[in-house]
Specification:
- By secondary structure, the protein is α/β, with parallel strands linked by helices.
- It has a single domain (6-294), classed as 3-Layer(aba) Sandwich (Rossmann fold), CATH 3.40.50.1820.
- The chain has helices at 11-16, 58-66, 91-105, 117-128, 151-155, 161-168, 173-179, 187-194, 204-211, 222-231, 253-262, 278-294; strands at 21-26, 29-36, 43-47, 70-74, 110-116, 133-141, 240-245, 267-271.
- Strands 1-2-4-3-5-6-7-8 form an eight-stranded mixed sheet, with helices on both faces.
- It is globular.
């Protein structure tokens, strides 16, 4: 089983991602995670999506730790620096894996931040243990069924050709470094997003995440996501911030509207000129807004 070596990260990436990487032996292989900040600080769990990894949260991790929070940011199995299992892991498996990490770390109370697929995974986790979850940061994501899918992503779901594009030709992780932002990424940041995905074998889960989008009525993940959606009312009353890039081609304003409909009391911090990687485009302003929200008392 392929498991990336954190020591092999390029120096320019390590400079941006200055964390000691931890490991948990999940049933499907090593799950790597950042555990940064004072151990007696209130934990914040940050969940990335596809095709990113915990590198996505690097600036927010540092900002939260500086405010006294313990920040835990895992790489989903098959992603980032975590092991590459051979079997196809679907949404249900990924919720279970993160729940396993939470139990391993003994997190009895924590705040939550999600992005992209991290939304379905994180809300799936939160609805299983609502009494443990406090504040929720929601950034360009979804946690409910939708028929809205961009054609460029639908193409990556097509049988055979989809895997060829997303895994073999690197037609998903690499394009995200320019399609997911409105402001060009620096060379070092682009290298950071791509560092764990330099080979065909390392990109297997990138393709699998795309294939796991439950568009068809008989898709195996559709009832799982439907159950997450049905359980969202258990999180009513939780402090929530919808921090959103309004130029996202994927999780567009229909998804933002979906959260507003389900959580009308949620605060909104909208960035009209930001794309899918909202914390990249919004920069220090977005990171500060997220950190201020998650550290309110």
């Amino acid at each position: 089983m392929l498991t990336p070596d954190p020591a092999a990260l390029p120096a320019e990436v390590k400079a941006l991602y200055p964390f000691e990487v931890q490991s948990w032996a999940s049933p499907d292989g090593l799950m790597r995670y950042v555990d940064h900040g004072p151990r007696d600080g209130r934990p914040v769990l940050l969940l990335h999506g596809n095709p990113s990894w915990s590198f996505l949260w690097r600036d927010l991790i540092l900002a939260l730790a500086a405010k006294g929070r313990r920040v835990i940011a895992p790489d989903h199995l098959g992603m980032g620096l975590s092991a590459r299992p051979q079997r196809f892991l679907r949404l249900a498996d990924r919720i279970q894996a993160v729940q396993g990490l939470v139990e391993h770390l003994g997190l009895k109370a924590f705040d939550l931040g999600v992005h992209d697929w991290g939304g379905a995974i994180g809300f799936g986790l939160a609805t299983r243990m609502p009494d443990r979850v406090g504040r929720i940061l929601v950034t360009n994501t979804g946690a409910f069924l939708s028929d809205n899918i961009p054609r460029r992503i639908a193409l990556c779901r097509a049988p055979v050709i989809g895997r060829l594009i997303a895994q073999h030709l690197d037609g998903f992780a690499w394009p995200a470094t320019w399609m997911a932002v409105e402001k060009p990424l620096s060379k070092a940041v682009k290298a950071g997003f791509l560092a764990p995905y330099g080979s065909i074998a390392s990109r297997q889960a990138v393709a699998q995440f795309v294939a796991d989008i439950p568009m068809e009525a008989d898709h195996p993940t559709r009832p799982v996501l439907a159950a997450v959606e049905a359980a969202l009312p258990t999180l009513q009353g939780k402090p929530m911030l919808l921090l959103w890039g309004l130029k996202d081609f994927c999780f567009d304003q229909t998804f933002l509207a979906g959260f507003i409909q389900r959580f009308p009391a949620a605060r909104q911090r909208l960035f009209p000129d930001a794309g899918h990687y909202v914390l990249e485009d919004s920069g220090a302003t977005g990171v500060q807004a997220a950190a201020d929200f998650l550290t309110e008392v």
